[in-house]
Amino acid sequence: MLSVKQELLTALAAELEQLSPGAGARAAFENPKVASHGDFACTAAMQLAKPLKANPRALGEQLKTALEATPAFQKWVDAIEIAGPGFLNIRLKPAAKQEVVREVLSQGSQFGFQPERGEKILVEFVSANPTGPLHVGHGRQAAIGDAISNLYSSQGWDVHREFYYNDAGVQIDTLTKSTQLRAKGFKPGDECWPTDADNPLAKNFYNGDYIADIAQAFLNKETVQADDRAFTANGDVDDYDNIRNFAVAYLRNEQDKDLQAFNLKFDEYYLESSLYTNGYVEDTVQRLIDSGYTYEQDGALWLKTTEFGDDKDRVMRKSDGNYTYFLPDVAYHIQKFQRGFGKVVNIQGTDHHGTIARVRAGLQAANVGIPKGYPDYVLHTMVRVVRNGEEVKISKRAGSYVTLRDLIEWTSKDAVRFFLLSRKPDTEYTFDVDLAVTQNNDNPVYYVQYAHARICSVLRSWHEQGGAGAASALRDVDLSALEGPQAQALMLQLAKYPEMLTAAAAGNAPHDVTFYLRDLASAYHSYYDAERILVDDEKVKLARLALVAATAQVLHNGLAVLGVSAPQRM
After folding, report:
1. N or C: lower Cβ tally within 10 Å for the chain?
2. Is the pLDDT of residue 195 over 70?
């Protein structure tokens, strides 16, 4: 059907060009919101009426007559109707809708994919500091980042997944102090371990049981693997540096286990410390000073970010000589650009909203050729977790929050990914654990996966009856029997997949894929309930099998974008 649509658009463009030179380039079809209005809608007559000083309905009649005379419209269009002030409602012949079945079966897993475009994109996500297990918010970020990466891959981009983390600084000192105290035999609640929320010192300690696990592993002189390096504890509770290096490696290893449970892999782990050891931070400072946008005040070095749209100037180097987080962020993004990533998408929590203007301002002030608006940001809210009707706020393992691994263990990787992607990232979301394990139509991931498994069951039954049982055997069957309203609706839904993918990638909107898959599953279930597939009439049976096999393929493709499996049995 994609080829059909392109033929019709080409014919439309030619006729619009005849009406008004240059108008052909704007040829487009819209999808009517009401199915009874037709399969495509065209508003060209209304758009051209004013510049041509013509009555829009009369112009619509003229365009309708011209289109009906073209070979493409004669071949694929059943009727064109004029509606309202000049809308063209276009109804396709069944044969036009049937073409999508052939396209899906011939292209398989590549249906909806665009050719390679020769451009690189870096998607940075999760980027959790190694101070504890990954929490549910990290899980939402992981699902969003991986799905966005898959969307860009489908559109021909060369995608690089990157995880950036702080391996030094205040939070790592907090981790080290907490681990050292545990190794010395102290625990939360002891006098030396403040837990008073009103006591600032309480922020200097992590209370989760995972700290005790790290301390015990340190005392056992264990070796852990992290980021292609091995770290061995020496068991000396007074060796602060060894405790720090071991604790960071231990938690990086734990985070990797969390990511493996989520079936997520990164192309690169980028350390903040490397920005200093490689001289990138100092180079950035010098660039900004040379740009003329810095000044000193109260012993600190400031950047005039207000010159680039920020609401106030920002401190780069504090009066004590230490850099603020802002500066390595700018240095890091300069490195992204200089590594050849002309497009970058950062997935971060909404608490990072304030960093957008200052980082972009710093990049412009550095004057290294980075375009305005670089990088792109996708901000997400945190996630509430409800179990047995009550909100779950803490995990024994983490101490203060629900971990990603908790959620996967309570439900499944597929449920966690699908649920966390089922709303816009900046929308508040409540994860219902009980719903996620329910096997009925109220559970959206079950509903979609069941549609796929149901089709696989039909194909197995066909094979058991002596049929090929494989979708590849259905590519060239006669599809003329697919004329019922449910079959027509299902084929139209299949045809929406490529444009949906393109729009979802352009808008960094993986939630659109979840909405689409639920609609496709609904269209399939309606079709299955309306028409028996394994009928005696061989021609009808093969046509219906081809349609459901194509549906299974698109369900599989869409679930793959989300990182969710497409089970053959349930």
Report:
1. C
2. no
